[in-house]
Amino acid sequence: MSTLTEERLDAAFAALADPTRRAIVSRLATGDATVNELAAPFAMSLPGISKHLKVLERSGLISRRRDAQFRPCHLEVEALDQTLDWITTHRRIWDERFDKLDARLRAVQSGRRHRKGVVG
Amino acid sequence: MSTLTEERLDAAFAALADPTRRAIVSRLATGDATVNELAAPFAMSLPGISKHLKVLERSGLISRRRDAQFRPCHLEVEALDQTLDWITTHRRIWDERFDKLDARLRAVQSGRRHRKGVVG
DNA sequence: CAGTTAAGTAACCTTCTGGTTAAGTGCAGC
DNA sequence: GCTGCACTTAACCAGAAGGTTACTTAACTG
After folding, report:
1. Which residue does chain B place closest to A89, by CA atoms?
2. Hey, of A87, A97, A98, which one would you mutate to test binding to chain B, going by the most B CBs within 10 A of its CB?
C-alpha cells in the first residue's frame, strides 16, 4: 500500500508547508484528538480548521473515524515517513557526492604529482 | 546562523511541494548546475524555471553565485536538514507515545490480575 | 561595435489557497 | 421531538502560485 507517487509527495509537503497544519500534526503526534480539541489553540474559525483537516486528510497525513458526534483525527505516520524518505535519500546523495570528491582528490594527490588539480 | 523559524519551514516545505522543484533539488544533490542545465529536462520556459529557482533560493534550499554569464546553483543542505529535523522530531514523539502506551499496558497486565484491561 | 548566449524582470492570466460567515447534517439527551 | 453540540458544506473573497510571452540586462566573442 501507499505507493510513493509524485502526487503524494506534492500533497504531503504542501500540507506541511502551513504552520497551522504543522501544529495540528504536532499535536496529533502525541495522540488522537477531536476537531474541537485541535481547534482550541488557534484564533481561527472552526470551518477554517475543518479545511486544514481536509487538506491533511487528502495528503494522507491524517485519517478520521467516526465516534458518535465526534470525528477523532489520527496521525498516519507512514505518510510522514514518505517525506522523510525523500529528504534522507537526497541528503545521502549529497553526502556521497562529497565522498566521491574526496576520493578523487586523494587519487590526484597521491597518484599524480600535483598537476594543477583544480576541481571546483 | 539559519535560525529555525516557522517561516523558514513554511518556505522550505512549500518549495519541496512542487515536483519540478523537487527534481531540481534532486539534480543539485549530485552537484552544482547552471540554470540552462537545470532547465534542460523540463518542457517549460526558462522564465518558469527562473521562478522556481527564486522560490528555492528564498526558501534557503539553494544559493546562486556568479560565474561570468552563468549563475551556478548550489544545494544548501542545511535547509534540507531543518525539514528533516522537524519531521524526525515528530516521528519520534509519535513513537514515544507508543512506548508509553506499552509501558502502561505492561504495568496493568503484571500489576493487576487481568481486570478487563480495555485501553483503546 | 554588433551579435550571441545566459539569465532575469515585467506584465498578464488562470487556478489554487486560506480565510471568512451562514446554513446544513448527524447524533445525544432531556 | 425539540434543543444543543460537533462538526461539515456552500458561497464568497483577497491574495499567492504557476505558467506564459515579450523585453531587458550582462557578459563573452568575433
Report:
1. B26
2. A87
The single-letter code of the amino acid at B96 is E
Q: Are B42 and B49 in contact (CB under 8 A)?
A: yes
Give the whole-number percent of chain B exceeding pLDDT 70: 79
CB B6 within 8 A of CB B50: no
| B120 touching A (Cβ < 8 Å) | no
Contact at 8 Å (CB) between B12 and B85? Answer: no
Closest Cα in chain B, distance from residue A17 (Å) = 4
Please give the backbone phi and psi of residue A42, each rounded to the nearest 5 degrees, phi first: -105, 145
- Mutation pick from B8, B13, B63, B119 vs chain A, by most beta carbons of A within 10 Å, is B13
> What distance in Å separates the CA atoms of residue A21 and residue A27, rounded to the nearest whole number?
10
Contact between B38 and B24 (Cβ < 8 Å): yes
pTM of the model: 0.85
Q: Which residues pair with A75 in a beta bridge?
A: A62
User: CA of A76, closest CA in chain B: separation in Å?
Assistant: 10
Contacts of B41 (CB under 8 A, 6+ apart): B23, B27
Closest-CA residue of B relative to A24 is B90
Contacts (Cβ under 8 Å, ≥6 apart) of A21 = A15, A52, A55, A56
Mean pLDDT of A67-91: 96
